[in-house]
Design goal:
Elements lengths: L2 E7 L4 H19 L7 E7 L5 E2 L2 E2 L4
Parallel strand pairs: 1-2
Antiparallel strand pairs: 3-4
Length: 61
Amino acid sequence: MPLVTIKMFEGRTEEQKKALVEKVTEAISETTGASADSVTIVIEEMTKNHYAVGGKRYSDL
């Protein structure tokens, strides 16, 4: 059972997230041979003030 975690900034529409899940499931299934029904995807959305690179939060850039 493949388990995929996708971390991204909040703000995508439900339609975008649905399309993302469908395409990632398809890619995992095609490349690993796992059935699509066994692919689990978790989307973790975060705000820009909870993510930093180079000592600076994205909300401050």
